[in-house]
Amino acid sequence: MRSNPPPSLVLFAGSALVSLGLTVSPAAGAAGPANVNSASPQASAAPDPIVGSWRPREYRLAAGETLPVDGRIVFLARSDDGSRGEWSVTFFVTGAEGAAVRGSAEGGAWSREGRSLLLTHQYHLSAGDAAGPLAAAPLAMAMRSAEEADANHREPCEVSVESGVLTLYFPSGNSMTFERVEALR
Description:
Elements lengths: L12 H7 L32 E9 L5 E2 L1 E9 L6 E11 L5 E14 L2 E5 L2 E6 L8 E7 L2 H7 L1 E9 L2 E5 L5 E7 L4
Antiparallel strand pairs: 1-2, 1-3, 1-11, 3-4, 4-5, 5-6, 5-7, 6-9, 7-8, 9-10, 10-11
């Protein structure tokens, strides 16, 4: 009897790059500590220090509780000065046994100036059980045009990068900390 592997779904750029055997150059912002507290990179400058692949360390809620997470966020540069591009994230909040209890996959365009990072939400998929103080979330899906995402689905965040650690501070008061992945395999 033939056994079929379980179905899988490649959602966004980070996973898609791996599935297609493509890599993001570790040199894309991985050459050591970076400070995004300064002005955006100028033309012909190195790519923005957020460019690359990052693995989440923790998801901190505004009230202070932290939730264990796993997944990837990938920032790709799509401008001459490296201060704009595309992003995608797939992450899971994990339970006591390390199993995924809820997850989210999102993506769109990004732009940065100093500590200000603007994320547009062109793609969104989320669902899951209750986790800590987070209530259960029913399946939610959205796929929008880039124009619709830019006009109506913008998330202004603050960002910091220090010693290979990226932290995103969301408007909700929540934050997520990531560590750089040196190479996609």
